[in-house]
Amino acid sequence: MPSESADRKHPNRWLIAADALAKGNVLVCAELAGIQAAKQTGSLIPLCHPLSLTGIAVQCTVEQDAVVARSEVKCADRTGGRDGSADRRQYGPADGVRHVQGR
Fold first, then answer.
1. How far apart are alpha carbons 74 and 91 in whole angstroms?
2. Cα–Cα distance between 23 and 70 in angstroms, integer?
3. Theoretical Cys-Cys bridge with 62: which of 15, 17, 22, 91, CB 3.0 to 4.6 Å?
4. How many CA atoms lie within 13 A of 79 on its CB side?
């Protein structure tokens, strides 16, 4: 399941869309940060073991009314599924974090 987040009140969304910020293309930077964060889940989240990720996709865009980040993570680890017993489950990062923490 893909995960999505939108910031509808970002004050610089038009500058981001035009790639006119002084620090460069922040959308590409955000995509790379999302990929790195997914790879480091085991060290960023307390009590989370390293996950055997088989795919990571992060896409950041500026839409008419929002800055949107979409991500999808695939995991083939025995305990990477929602209930900890299923193999080859597919889930978004928010789902993975919630279930890895035991909620």
1. 6
2. 22
3. 17
4. 10
What three-state secondary structure class fits 93? helix
Residue indicated by tokens 């978004």: 92
CATH architecture of residue range(s) 3-100 = 2-Layer Sandwich (3.30)
15-36 pLDDT, tens digit each: 998 899 888 899 999 999 999 9
Residue 66 token pair: 């929002």
Tokens (6 digits) for 42: 């085991």
What pLDDT band is residue 78 in, cutting at 50, 70 and 90?
Answer: low
The CB density around residue 74, as the number of other CB atoms within 10 Å, is: 15
Q: How many residues make up the chain in this entry?
A: 103
